[in-house]
C-alpha cells in the first residue's frame, strides 16, 4: 500500500502546475535573444546561433574560450546565449585570470571548471577579487570546509561565488544557527546538502518555512532542529506551495494524524531509512530542488 501511495504521490507532485515553482532558486533562465549580438545576427537559440555572424574579434574570443573550457559547439552556443556579454570581455586580461583563479581557489579540475561555468555562465562576469576570492575564502573559513567539500559546493552550486559573504551569506548562516541552535559542523552539513539556502532570504523564505512547519506539526524546538538536520532540503521548499499541500495529502489520503506525521520526521538519517513512511517523506523532501550530500 505504501509503495502504491508513494507512486501516486510522486505522480501528483510532478504533474502539479505548482511544480514550476520548485525550480532551484539559484537557477538563471537564459534570455530569449542574444542581446549583445549585432542586428544582422540570427536568432540566438543554441541551435540557430552562428558564430560566423559575429565580428572577427568576437569569433576569436569565442574560439579561445571554447578551447580553454574544452566546450563542444553546443555547449559554447548555450554559454553565449546565457551570457552574451562575455563577447565583450578581454580573454587575457579578464577571462583567463578569472577562470584560473576560480580553479585554483576551489581546486577544480578542467572538467569541474567547465561544469561550473555551464551551470552558472554569469560567473564569467564576476570579479575575481571583488566576488569570487573573498566569498570562497570566507566560506572555507567560516564553515571549516575541507578542499573536497568546497570543490563539490562550487561545482554543484556555482552561484554561491556571486554572493556577498558579509551582506548575504553571513547573516543567513548566523540566523539559521541561532533559530535552530546549530553547531558550526551542523550548519556546514545543512549548507553542503542544500546550498541554495545561502541565497535565500531569511525573512521572506527560511524563517516563515521553519515557523510554519513547526506550528503545523506541533514540534518542539529540538524536534524541529533534528528534522532539519536529517532533511535540510525542506529549507528549500515553500511551505505554502510545496510543504502544506503534501502534508494535507498525508492526512487526507493516508488518514494520518498530525502526531503520526510528526513522529515520522526522522531524528537521524540512519533511522530514517528504516521508517515505514520513508518512500513518502523521500518524495516530499528529495524529489524537488536540493542537492543530496
From TrEMBL:
Organism (species): Prymnesium parvum
Any one GO MF annotation of this record: nucleic acid binding
Family matches, as PANTHER family: CGI-12 PROTEIN-RELATED (PTHR13068), TRANSCRIPTION TERMINATION FACTOR 3, MITOCHONDRIAL (PTHR13068:SF112)
Coiled-coil intervals, chain numbering: none
Gene3D superfamilies assigned: Transcription termination factor 3, mitochondrial
Stated name of the protein: Uncharacterized protein
Keyword Transit peptide carried by entry: yes
Signal sequence extent: none
Keyword Transit peptide included in the entry's annotation: yes
Similarity section: Belongs to the mTERF family.
Keywords: Transit peptide
